[in-house]
From TrEMBL, chains A, B, C, D, E:
GO cellular component terms listed in the entry, alphabetical order: bacterial microcompartment
Protein name, entry field: Carboxysome peptide B
Transmembrane segments: none
Hydrolase recorded as keyword: no
NCBIfam families assigned: carboxysome_B (TIGR02704)
Annotated organism of origin: Thiomicrorhabdus sediminis
Location within or outside the cell: Bacterial microcompartment
Amino acid sequence: MEIHQVKQELILTSRLPDMGYLPVKVLTSVSGSTSVAMDPIGVKEGDWVFTIANSAARDAAGDKRYLTDLTVGGIIDNWRP
Amino acid sequence: MEIHQVKQELILTSRLPDMGYLPVKVLTSVSGSTSVAMDPIGVKEGDWVFTIANSAARDAAGDKRYLTDLTVGGIIDNWRP
Amino acid sequence: MEIHQVKQELILTSRLPDMGYLPVKVLTSVSGSTSVAMDPIGVKEGDWVFTIANSAARDAAGDKRYLTDLTVGGIIDNWRP
Amino acid sequence: MEIHQVKQELILTSRLPDMGYLPVKVLTSVSGSTSVAMDPIGVKEGDWVFTIANSAARDAAGDKRYLTDLTVGGIIDNWRP
Amino acid sequence: MEIHQVKQELILTSRLPDMGYLPVKVLTSVSGSTSVAMDPIGVKEGDWVFTIANSAARDAAGDKRYLTDLTVGGIIDNWRP
């Protein structure tokens, strides 16, 4: 799992139907790289979160059928990068 | 999931039969690295898209039998890298 | 599998219910990058451990339903990085 | 999926029986890193190919029992890196 | 799959019971990074080997229940990095 900060919601012109309708967030890592994750929790811009990758990400999104490889797993308290 | 820009269609001299016949696109990431993804949506050169990796990529391509580890999941609106 | 040093326990304001209640630890690699892992062993700050990633991480946490992509697999004796 | 150039066949002193007997090729990426892939197609030194990783790589090799995490999926025509 | 050189056996103070009792080896890649792999073959310090990652690594270790994400798959003959 990795630590990321929430940067913004991602506005999608189109998405595959099986992705479901969870919000999709743009995240930045401590080293500055950008990723995109499904958000079943409802995190806000600036929150520090940890993310779950690959097969566990699909269950974390709430349904194994969801098409995701990265999902927000929780909010971190008092994180100082 | 990652954010990529569509660079071109990939012309294949031969491919494994189980790959199916979806278009295959060359993508570049914000940091400049190159990847190849199946495209079930029909994205165009220059579009900003997000991509789904690994086991979810196969379902995203429309059929778990498809041989892919990266699939275009949607088009991003108003993205400024 | 990778070698990591335990840095601290991660305090979570919220987490997905299916993550279970194992402690979650912040780890650093030899090259200085930061990861987060479930800890079924009870490792302490400063311990050198090895970690198991992806699908095996879920079984390593004790239950395939646990939502993790990285789990502490053991403590390393006499490691000098 | 990634784009690689075929460098040489890999001569193996011993291999696990469940790997099967497909040729194994050494590949280099555009950025110069080295990988090893199973080759069900019969690619030649200097060919540009694309490769399929992880679980799809096993099916791409022709049998889910094959022990591989990277398989050559096709030959690319007219590639200029 | 990747090419690695065997550096040393890893001495474990404790390990999860489901890891089984195969030797665990510290490996270095051509670019100098360090990984840890299960060794069902019995490779020696200094050997050049190739390694299999993720789900195939578990079968390569001899049993899908083994908790590993990297397993030695074979010894390479006459490798000059």
